[in-house]
Amino acid sequence: MLRADLYEEKIEIEPYISSGDCRACGFFSREEFLKKLRSGRLKPSHCKMAKMRFLSLLWAVRPKEILPEVEVLQLPAPGPTGLFPINHPGKGSPVLVSGNSTITAEVLTAVLSTTLSPFWYLVVDTNGHTVDMAIVYKVLTAERVMEGVHRERLDQTAPESTLFLPGFAAAIRDDLAKLSSRSVNVGPVCAAELPLFFGEKYWMMA
Fold this sequence. Notes:
- By secondary structure, this protein is an alpha/beta fold.
- It has helices at about 20-25, 30-40, 50-60, 100-110, 130-135, 140-150, 155, 175-180, 195-200, and strands at about 80-85, 95-100, 120-125, 165, 185.
- Helix 3 packs antiparallel against helix 9 (about 195-200) and helix 6 runs parallel beside helix 8.
- The two termini are about 30 Å apart.
């Protein structure tokens, strides 16, 4: 099987690591800590940091620990669109925006299975393209996201929520903010970075 590129190399972990993280695992340099973490020999039982914090760092440096193996597809693979609740979200829970590729759904489902935190998952019609290709073919646009927002009545369901775009969709952030009159943030390119991106406060471990 030819494995799809899930952009693991796009994860920049250094900004997330503090000196406290290193000391909690018995190290005094970031380089030494990362080397041991990347090797897979460092375990949660070896460190004094919270388990969720440790795992989010581990998944960022060893993404295959959390990401499924998905096959490269030669053609788009459309899946369902819609608004899907994750862990009983409320009116202010974050809204994760993505496209309707079955590959994207499989990857995000695997990552979201690690949290008990509430999210809305808004799947936009991108003709079955993954986010990277949807941007290339201009089928993930602010207008298409707004079609999903209106169709799913997001203004009634989650009027206080912030929209979070995948990293590859950063170019449409400003247009979407204007059209939606909402706060719109750009998340990471690789889904394995989501636990670190949201942090322990917003990503409670399952």
